[in-house]
Amino acid sequence: MARNTRSSKLETRTSRLRLPVAKKPVFARVAPGVSLGYRRNETAGTWVLRVADGKGSSWTKRIGQADDFEESNGRSVLTFWEAQQQARTTAGGEKGEGAQMAPLTVEVAALAYLAGLEARNQRTAYDARRRLERLFLPRFGRSRIEDLTRRQLEAWRDGLVRAGGDAEQHRRSQDTANRVLSIVKAMLNHAVGDRTNGLTDDSAWRLVRPFQRVGRPREVHFTSAEVLRLLEGCDDVGFRDLLTAGFLTGARYGELASCQVRHFDAEGGTLYVPRGKTGARIVILQPEAVMFFSRLVIGREKNAQLLPRVDGNAWGASHQVRPMKKALLTAKLDPSGTFYALRHSYISRAIEAGVPLNVVAENCGTSVRMIETTYAKVLAAKRREFIANGAPRLFAAVTLA
Q1: CATH architecture of 13-94
Q2: Which of 78, 135, 178, 222 lies at a 20 to 30 A Cα distance from 378?
Q3: CA distance 58 to 70
């Protein structure tokens, strides 16, 4: 069974369009004696097949146009993965071997789906890739798509749910399972939508239903007074600084954990977040946050962790869970709160203060639509106040004049 070949230069339209315009194609070997080439043109590039004749020479043939500027149609316009399959089929047909397309595996389908998704939205593709690689591909990556069954997928979905007595944790895991299931369905539907794959039956995943009524906005958030109580109840200096940074910036836990001293710009009043769920961004800091970080970086190396643990090491995955629970218990705050509640609090307080939603969204690495959905209650509560304070006045203005 032929396996698809990876090529960092040719897999995505983004990487292909970085290549210089040239008459000579860039080739990638896709089978013994068979190579797929891409010729970069002024307009859309073309896919070229090169087949060795076994006598030290070779022949070439154009097999289609690359999907550089328009979506694949599976015939004249092809993705890298489709062109690779077409190259093998054409090479086999020319040799009189009647070569047939290898059965499509889930892993190959995922690569093709993510390549197209990355060309459209790199942030979404990054999140989808991480979830698939961690929660789906280890189990189903080598499976053929046509061999998937509804029972297998339902068992996998149910396996993502955490068992135990914590009802909120159970709900959250069901919500996570739904998110991953939606990515899996999109990936498999993408494979079916490509007619060259020869897939016609989508019932195995179409009939797998998500868990009902488990998605809800994060309700827990803190006032400034409650955050002060939280800090007072925290005896870990490193974690106290991390909590403070979380409330003053609205950044996610992983984003803050990735920051180094050099990422803070005291003069510009900004914090550069190098990695995060939505990619790198610059966070604009209010004066109090600038003072806080300025104190933290005094006399420290530029490549040191901006917010280290007490032992000097970086915060890792889930390192915040236990100290957060302890701090919440000591401060007598809602025990269902998480570190994310600080981000929730930052956004809620910013909305209440009248900061424009697009500014909040950009600073926090999210979308206005997400804020409108997640913080609908906060927006509804402040709507009358916003209008009373900000809507145009007529007669008062005339009187003052």
Answers
A1: 2-Layer Sandwich (3.30)
A2: 178
A3: 31
